[in-house]
Structures are given as structure tokens and as C-alpha cells.
Amino acid sequence: MASPKKPVKVRRTLGGWRHPLALALLLVAIGWAVGAFFATSDKDFPKVGTVPFLSDINGWNWGIAIVLALVATSIADRTRPPAAPGSRGWRYAGVAMSVSAVIGLLWVVVFYVISNTTVHIPFYSDLGQWNILIGMGFIIAAFGFATKWE
What we know:
- The protein has helices at residues 20-40, 52-56, 60-78, 93-114, 130-146.
- The protein is flat, with a radius of gyration of 22 Å.
- Helix 1 runs antiparallel to helix 3 and helix 4 packs antiparallel against helix 5.
- By secondary structure, it is mainly alpha-helical.
């Protein structure tokens, strides 16, 4: 009588955004961008004040944050495990892409239409110029959904 076979454990690779170096660099890039915001604006770090190193290099802070984010993205892309054979794209990627693009476009258009009027939309009007960034974020997310579409 044959003994039952033990299931083989499959070890998941730490590739893509699960790679520790990619995650660490992305967190450092986000932290550096937050530091760059406080160093280049008239605001100081809460309960810290100014950080001399960040204030000394002024505009280079944004470049350093962008380069760190690009390196993190490159590491995540190069270490991504290969897709399983026969795998297909996400079923609702086309719908998500279209909806995200339309929301982003409407967000920016509504901001520009009401910006010089007396119309006040709660919370939306309080965001000010951040509305452009939020609308562009939806549009960029639409491009991300487009990469999942087949």
C-alpha cells in the first residue's frame, strides 16, 4: 500500500511591490516628498521646525523624491514574478478605466467652472487648487486600469 503524498509547498517570491527594497525606497520617496513640501513652503514640520539639510537643497528635494520613486518602481518591475500561463486581464478593467477617466475629467471641469463664481460646494470648494491634483489622479488611475485591460 502506497503512502499518501504530502502536498508540495510553493514558496512565493518576493517580487514586484512585495520586494523589500522596492517598498523601502517607495516609503523613503514619499517621506522625502513630504519633507520637500515642508522645506519649500512657508510651513514648518509639526513639532519639529525646519530641517536644515532639506532647506539647504531647496528645489532638488523634488528631484530626489522622484528619482527614489522611479528606482523603486524599476525594482518592483524587474522583480515581478512571471504571470501564470493562460492568465487573462482583469474583466472590468475597461469599465473602471472609463469611469475613472470621466470622473477625473468632470472633477477638473467642475473646478474650473465654479472657481471664479460664488457657488460653494461643501468640502469640494474648500480643497482649492488640490482639486486639479485629485482630478489628475483619477485620470492617471485610468491609465493604470488601461494596463490591465485585454
